[in-house]
Amino acid sequence: MRSLPTTLILSAIVGLLAFGGVFLWKKSQIDHRHEHLDAFEWFCEEFKVDGDQRGKIEALHLAYFPECEDHCVHYADTKQTLSEITNDPGLDQHPEHAKAAVELALLKKEADKKFIDFIYSVAAEMDSDSSEGYLQRMKGWLEKTTSIAGE
Amino acid sequence: MKKSDFDRHLERATEQLRAEPAVDGLHDFERRVWAEIALHDERWPSRIARFFREGLPTLPVPAVAGSVATALVVGVLTALVQAKSYGETLSDSMEARYVSTIHPVLRSESEDHRHLSPNR
After folding, report:
1. For residue B115, what pLDDT is reported?
2. Which terminus has fewer CB within 10 Å in chain A: N or C?
3. Which of A3, A22, A115 has the CB atom closest to B80's CB atom?
4. Sign of torsion, CA A124 A125 A129 A132?
5. Stretch (H or E) spanning A18
6. Mean per-residue pLDDT pooled into runs of 10, chain B (120 residues)
7. Do A141 and B103 touch (CB under 8 A)?
8. Cβ pair A91, A97 in contact under 8 A
9. Residue of A8, A27, A68 with shortest CB distance to B83
10. Whether complex ipTM tops 0.95
């Protein structure tokens, strides 16, 4: 026989210990797994890509990275230029301002096109179920990049 | 008579009154009156102690075991749900990292884009 408060206190202690123990154990497992995971390995694990598929898709990524990096540098430079023009009161209403803004918008559009072409080329090498999930999730990022570009 | 002796005698008499169904020379009504008087005379610390000793419901061992087991299961399940949510958050950040390697705009936003290795 135990009184009600003793029982409640005992149960709360056991529940909290169970929660703490299991959560910390699972968290350490998750942390350990993610510590040793790079972005491409995450992609392979998340979309169940392995074997021959993995080799082909990795080759696609490696071929695309330099092109993506060039575009990235071009985009970052143009954005920097636009930012400097915007912050310079002397260049307000200057034709360079509009020119840089148009160029940045075009680069963003081109970046989206490159991104879409790339994810479709990757999806073509994946299983149908995985490719559908991959395309759906990657397309979700197009909106986010638009909002980031607008900032 | 010392105060502590008085308390002891009073407590003993009260217990006796409660325990014995028919104390000589006392009718039911008188016994109940004496019991009430004894209860009202109790000091407040002993009244609180009595409440915790006798006033609270007690549970049988299987009910206690059931309560502890339920708390254990609830604790484990809650931990698993929280851990899953934590894993999803980490997975989302890995997804953002992956996309920042393949979308030029996101890549330009990442601080280390100039030092990004292909498999980063």
Report:
1. 43
2. C
3. A22
4. negative
5. helix A4-35
6. 75 71 64 70 72 74 92 97 94 90 83 46
7. yes
8. yes
9. A27
10. no
